[in-house]
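Look over this record as teaching material.
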Amino acid sequence: MQNNTRHFAVIGVLVVIFTFVVYWVLDGVLQFPMPASLQAASIDTMIQGHLWLIAFLFSLVIVFMVYALFLFRRRPGDESEGEYFHGNTTLEILWTVVPMVLIIGFGYWATVDLAALTKRQDNEVIVNAEGFQWGWNFSLPNSDLVTQELVLPVGSAIRMDMTSKDVLHNFWVPEFRVKQDIVPGRTTYLRFTPTVEGEYTLICSELCGLNHTGMIATVRVVPPEEFAAFWDQDVQTASSK
């Protein structure tokens, strides 16, 4: 019993050490783009939580496996039978209950975050988006003007009302973190609040045909007055034609 306790103590220390090492590697390899929306913080926090869990579970499996392979391997000339033991009820309960608690916990966390991300905001700026093979059209409600460039006001709550002309597409600006499928025959919605002025790239992250990788559009986040001027200028241009 004392020998088993020592083994578990050593394995416990190794698991902790390797968890930090694996997380450090994952965090270094998976470089996120700069967050540029109000929603990005909660999404990044959830991703970090998953990375810690992945690092721990990976270390738990690998450390146990490698430790057992090296320490309990058959020695040269040893033809004896291995020690027989009949399970461990406590351990079986733990590896059933702990994963269940983790799944429920992460599921609750995701549900709360999703409810917050999709909650209706006051004074939303509504922008229509239409995806098609292989491009994007954007417009404002009650307007016939269409542009292939998405211009958004910084600091304002945005609601994208999105439709597809043909097949399944997906709206994703990596810096905003949020994404949403665009489904033929229905309108889907995406809410976010851009917080950093600048130019970004909208991509379709749902395989939609031969030129899927070319289905991109420029997204500009500008001050509210520039956002208004952009559409007023389009109105003036259309009126003069």
